[in-house]
Amino acid sequence: SQQGEEDPQALSIQEGENATMNCSYKTSINNLQWYRQNSGRGLVHLILIRSNEREKHSGRLRVTLDTSKKSSSLLITASRAADTASYFCATDVRGSQGNLIFGKGTKLSVKP
Amino acid sequence: NAGVTQTPKFQVLKTGQSMTLQCAQDMNHEYMSWYRQDPGMGLRLIHYSVGAGITDQGEVPNGYNVSRSTTEDFPLRLLSAAPSQTSVYFCASSVRQGHQPQHFGDGTRLSIL
After folding, report:
1. What are the distances in angstroms from CA B76 to CA A24, A53, A100, B20, B50?
2. Over the stretch A22-80, which tens digit does the pLDDT of each residue have?
3. Do A45 and B105 touch (CB under 8 A)?
4. Is-contact B95 B74, C-beta < 8 A?
5. How far is B92 from chain A (nearest CA, A)?
6. Cβ separation of B105 and A104 shorter than 8 Å?
């Protein structure tokens, strides 16, 4: 069951530009999390935003959550080549006992 | 702290063979989980555990067994490998179930011939 769907599937930008990735989901959530995966590595947690929060920042990352639209966005400002990775949203769905459901990811390529 | 350690990193099996994927964490986390990642599919939950002696099935449990005899270890067993189980397997842990970020290992890349 695919709860979260990221958009776009792939994104290619130049260093210094901003990158925006979107995630839509289907059912009510406790929280939504964003993860990064570098090629050949495991996922790394970036940000957790709770259902009663609307925006969260961490360094160059900004996450928004709109529960009325069942959507979230991840903004990476001033992208660097090192930001090249796949980005996944994961939802902690209400009633799912806290297990996460992952989307299919957005593949970001930042060109130097 | 090593975090979440998975072994082996790569494995090739023949159809019908069995094997155990190892996962260990040194963060004293209660919650541990196994996912598989297939191209274009994202991560799907296989099994999870909320503490020693407690395990439960995720979205795709068929063909896999787990046990949790200690807080640190959560091995995943393939009973009789099938080509459909060719995938990258990730183990993850968190302080407890729900409302928590998960910490992932670097994965085991498994090919079934």
Report:
1. 31, 36, 19, 6, 15
2. 999 999 999 999 999 999 999 999 999 999 999 999 999 999 999 999 999 999 999 99
3. no
4. no
5. 9
6. no
